[in-house]
Fold Zinc-ribbon domain-containing protein.
Amino acid sequence: MVSCPNCGTENDENSKFCQSCGQEIIKKPASENIEVNENIEKSSTLLIVLGYILSILGIFSIGILSVISLIIGIVLYRRGGKDKTHGIIIAAISVIILLLVIMAIGGLLVYRAYFYNPV
């Protein structure tokens, strides 16, 4: 059954005009809505996978890729839904890796200062 956009009367699926008020019934193809949703899901899935990969590869890039994955995590968080959960996880992984990289660089600097410049 299709409802009339003008009066709300339920009409047959094949009706082109409302039985009650005569208003033309315009049917939206369901396939268009499904395609749009599939495209959004594909882009979300791509961002989620890319975010996880970049956050982990951030260890090997001195944290540069972790910054990019942190931005992806924030974008996913702002989208809401299931993306919000993945956004939080990606952002947390990115921040942890960034902190580890900063601590490693700091430790290296202290090590070099202590052993190469004796007091």
